[in-house]
Amino acid sequence: MHELQNLLFNASKLGRAPQLIEGTGAASALSKIVGRSPRRVLVVGSRRTVEGIPALASLVRHGAHHYGLTRPNPSVQDALDLSSAIEEARPTTVLAVGGGSAIDQAKAARLFKPDCRLLDSGLRGDASSLRPDPPLLVAVPTTAGTGAEMTPFATLYRGQAKVSLDLPQCRPDLAVLDGELTRTCPDRHSLAAVLDAVCHAIESGWSLSRTQSSRLYANAARDHLATHLARTAPPSPGNRWADDSAHSETRRHLLLLAAAVAGIAISQTRTTGAHAFAYHLTAAYGVPHGFACAASMSWIEAQASSRRSGTVDEATRAAVATLRQHLDGAQGARLVHLPSLNGNALEEYVDAGLAVRSRMATHPVPIDRPEAIRHIRADGRLGGTSAANVARKMPQNA
Predict the structure, then answer these.
(1) Are 10 and 132 in the same domain?
(2) pLDDT tens digits for 20-43?
(3) pTM score above 0.85
(4) What is the DSSP code (8-state) at residue 225?
């Protein structure tokens, strides 16, 4: 058994992860999981995603309900809308399939009735507002990166503000890990997801909340993800980033497992500075979450290294160097456009990140406003010309 599999199943046995079904082709077991009652199942995911997975398409044909109103970076209202669908369909099982956004939307919606006051109470950490008997949640990730299938929290947005549902009950009951499901994921989404997972591993590994156990998971995930990136050519115009080699099936599956292991690590520690600063890039400029995390990590690692010797070890420094290469390649291949922040826009980005106290409280070193601005400008990936002008040129980020 691979090291990543051992870590996942051990975490599941200890109650730190959902029950697991994993392996290439594991998704074919979905019809068996729900038994003979497809009408008591609600499948959450885009129509294209559901129709592309034979087991799910079969469930829908045989009477399972389908909810397809998912989108990147779901809002509080998106979760309430799905909650209304759950209230109407009365499923015993919710199957959430897709990236982290679809899974997070389902994680929040299945726990709360469609009442904004109840969800707001949950967002404040009050578990008394939960549904008394929520449906089971089965998470089926189709991207290798977010780790949402492992974590006891869900990210939602209210306007441009990120809010987090963080309750033990938020963790899915079962995760189905099948690397084959990531085969058709577009390069842009695949790379963004992997960069997100690398940041999860690094941030958990250096978090002030780390434990011996969380570091074991974080470092194992970091090393596997960084090795994968180092062996994969950065994106370039006209070339696919995804691995289509003869060994790609195994590599895809291990990548999915590594992302899940990173998810277990942040379940114990939560994320730190890179995620704190990333949220504003996503909310204000539409930068996909994984790219936003990578762009923030680029200058944050340099700041941490200069602020306190020994904060960043060699393996982490090498992982961030590889992350930068792929982020730069993604910009060159027009997979993403990063805003060039200056003046008020740069200050807003810094202030928004510093204001996420739940993440900054466990960041390994202090960051102040002038220091952040200096490192952002030195890094060059976000500091430069007017953000407003660049933002108008970013349609693919929408």
Answers:
(1) yes
(2) 999 999 999 888 887 778 889 999
(3) yes
(4) H
